[in-house]
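Justification of resources, computational component.

The compute hours requested in this renewal are based largely on the per-chain cost of generating structure records like the one below. Each record pairs the submitted sequence with a full structure-token output. That output is archived, and it is also reused by downstream analysis tasks.
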Amino acid sequence: MPQFDNLLQMMNAIPDEQAAIEHFTSVRWAGGAYCPHCGATKVYHFSDGKTHKCGACRKRFSIRVGTIFEDSKIPLRTWMLAIWLITSHKKGIASTQLAKDLGVTQKTAWFMLHRLRHAAQTRSFNRPLEGEVEADETFIGGKEKNKHAWQRTGGKQGGKGKIAVLGLLEREGELRTGVTPNLTSRTVQTVIRENVKPGAALMTDEHGAFTGLGDTYYHHRVNHSAGEYVRDYCLHTNGIESVWALFKRQIVGTHHWLSPKHISRYLGEMTWRFNLREMSEGDRVNALLNQTNGRLTYKALTA
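The structure output for this chain reads:
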């Protein structure tokens, strides 16, 4: 498998469409070839280097079948360029910019990016967060003064008219984020108890939803409203707050506006990139290629 650490190296290592197909094949079938229709491992390979046939169900298929690339007319090499851009840029890339970079329409670029976000979405977790864990909530939405009169909901407190999101960050470990329907104690603490190992050192602010977690965790709270942000050098929520700052810079500086319907997808993209931040650029490209199984149709995306 060719190795690359920058975009020019990737283009030199994968000079044409057939090389892109072979690279994706080596990533997807690293553990051996299998049929995307029935899962059988007896697979015949045709001499064109592009198509295969299952020895069990007898169906012909390409390496794209069963992935986000299925039925896409975009060359696989172009897809790899898009993957490089979305995995390398710390604040993501806008569909308008991707359209210019790849020479496709904005609508096509938008759909491509959402397919990649679908691939990057957080899968099921097996290991609870442990050690020192920071938890924090924030609201996503524009300022009232910048909205049209008909869009204003009135009031600035409590996140009225905004989307509530919750994040958990294990220091030197994994980040988990998600949209939450509300910030009640029951909702917030259910998420925390499902994702954080009992006995962990939990750092939060003074939000009321975190009250009552001391029976399960070593719960430490910093009082932001009183001007307290760090206590005893290690008691703080600066890590997860930096994550929210990064995500909001992504919205303001790159996308400018997000549909409430798709915020969870953008959160998933940012979270995936954050969790793989220690990887090299080329390894992140291969990591995303390795989890492209599963289709996302335009109809399902816009339903």
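The mean pLDDT is 92. The chain has two domains: 7-121+278-302, 132-258.
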